[in-house]
Amino acid sequence: MTCLFAGIARRAREVFVDVGKRRVHLDTTSFSVSGEYDGDHRSQGEEETDEALINITHGYSRDHRADLKQWMLALATTHEGDIPLFMKPLDGNSSDKVTLVNAVEALKEQLGDYSEEEEEEEEEEASIFVADSGLYSEANMARLAEAGVRWVSRVPETSNMARSIIDLDAPDWCSSADGRMRWYRREVTFPGDLEEEGRTERWVVVSSQASEERAEKTLRRKMEKERKRWESVLQALAGRKFACETDARGALSEQIERLLPAYLEVREVTLEARPRYAGRGRPKNEQEPLATDWRIEGALSVVEQQAEREWRRRACYIVGTSVLDPEILSDEELIATYKGQGSVERGFRFLKDPLFLASSVFVRKPERLVALGFVMVVCLLVYRLAEHRLRRRLSETGQSIPDQVGKPTAKPTMRWVFQLFEGIELLIIRSAESVSWQVLRLKPVHERILRLLGPTFEKIYRVPN
In the Cβ-directed half-sphere of 345, how many Cα atoms lie within 13 Å? Predict the structure, then answer.
């Protein structure tokens, strides 16, 4: 199915010559299924690369349905138009670290069909593959570097290098024209082994007004939870008895060092010495205490300066690329390219839309699930190609059509176009001498859309000139 779809997608690029492939977005998603699917159905020694034999099993569910078995789908779409170029059904427990790098290599081979004219500009025109942090690992990046693949990915902050490169006080922060985004660039070199040279990547640390607002809101919620938890810790300490002041302060210090985040502090610490007597009840006037018990109390406060640095730090993220030359891909273009990852996510939303009814279809064999996935992505391809052509023709001609509230738009969705065409019917008139037909309730806006889509659509509806 993957090879078949690759051929269809290539033919679509030949017909729709304006479908660019310079930036390609990849991601995976899961589809939950009902029913009693068997475990791994592959026979011993059978090739795991046979896509018709995907394993329907439990795995990490993007749909938050861990109770159901699932299968997964790898999808790649263009940056402009969200047009799918690649699809591959996967086992339900597939790892992004493995599937995404395999998809990138397969796509590079699939899209590496340059003409003689294109070969001269291959360095500038070769595809750049975009993925989220599931692609990024040192092993995968070394593998892609060896294959000469150009990539853009978010760098996870799981390494000391990634954590140390984020510097709120860096002197070379740059800002976008509207001031809503900031960034600075670093080149990071990874040493190679005795047989291979090291590689260099360009990392851009990014922060935006929107990400800071989200980070602050998230941190405030976390601070409230931390405050409530620490109130119970302080209450428990207040109920304990200590033999001396040093023990009381030591117990508080231990809790602070182990649990208290930097943006909270314990203030108004009070120590109280209480004599302890033998027996129960009120002691006699001349009775001497056996010992002195110490109790400690305190209250919490927020260190606003530390809290601000914390949420500003959390608002930062790293976008990495193997394209070192800013003339080919500037820092701002790099950030915009990564943010275009929503392209493939919009494809997943289309495939998972309840109106598509994919989730309500039950098929017994995994082979049929693979075939169903193929049909689903072909539907997405046709949908996106029609939407891309209509939007491009509207832009080129300076025209528009009314949206859902009657305002003019040059970027309609095909779903809305389909709704516009609801109610149009074909009337067939038969007589002894002839058979004629006409399209009912066809309005000027429908004729305009059909002309923009092309002669084939006009012929189907017989739009008059």
Answer: 9
DSSP string, 311-353: HHHHT-EEEEES---TTTS-HHHHHHHHHTTHHHHHHHHHHH-
- Between the CA atoms of 14, 16, 22 and 27, what dihedral angle is there, to the nearest 10 degrees? -100
Q: Cβ–Cβ contacts within 10 Å for residue 191, how many?
A: 8
d(C-alpha 370, C-alpha 87), whole Å: 11
Q: What are 391-434's pLDDT values in tens digits?
A: 999 999 999 999 999 999 999 999 999 999 999 988 888 888 88
- Tell me the pLDDT tens digit for each residue of 361-373: 567 778 888 888 8
Q: pTM for this structure?
A: 0.81
Percent of the chain with pLDDT strictly greater than 90? 42
Q: Establish how many alpha carbons lie within 13 A of residue 14's alpha carbon, considering only the half-sphere containing its beta carbon.
A: 9
Contact assessment for residue 142 and residue 167, using Cβ atoms and an 8 Å cutoff = no
- How far, rounded to the nearest angstrom, does the alpha carbon of residue 443 sit from its chain's CA centroid? 41
In this predicted model, what pLDDT tens digit does every residue of 45-69 receive, in sequence order?
444 445 557 888 888 888 888 888 8
56 token code pair: 């329907």
Give me the DSSP letters along 290-317.
Answer: SEEEEEEEEEEEE-HHHHHHHHHHHT-E
Q: Could you give the strand order of the β-sheet that contains 84-90, starting from the edge strand earlier in sequence?
A: 84-90, 69-78, 23-33, 128-131, 150-155, 317-321, 199-208, 181-190, 174-175
Widest distance between CA atoms in the chain? 130
Distance of alpha carbon 337 from alpha carbon 39, whole angstroms: 39
Q: What is the mean pLDDT of the chain?
A: 84
* Amino acid in position 437: W
Spatial distance between the Cα atoms of 362 and 342, rounded to a whole number of angstroms:
29
Say which residue the tokens 């006009």 belong to.
Answer: 458
Per DSSP, what are the bridge partners of residue 76? 26, 86
Sign of the dihedral through C-alpha 52, 57, 62, 67: positive
- For residue 33, what are its two tokens? 């299924």
Find the helix packing angle between 304-314 and 209-238, rounded to 10°: 130
**Is residue 180 scored above 70 in pLDDT?**
yes
Dihedral sign, CA of 32, 33, 34, 35?
negative
Q: What string of DSSP letters covers 203-219?
A: EEEEEEHHHHHHHHHHH
CA dihedral 426, 431, 435, 441 (to 10 degrees): -20
CB within 8 A of 313, min separation 6: which ones?
A: 166, 168
CA-based radius of gyration for the chain: 31
**CA 448, CA 437: separation in Å to the nearest integer?**
21
In the predicted structure, residue 124 carries a pLDDT above the cut 50? no
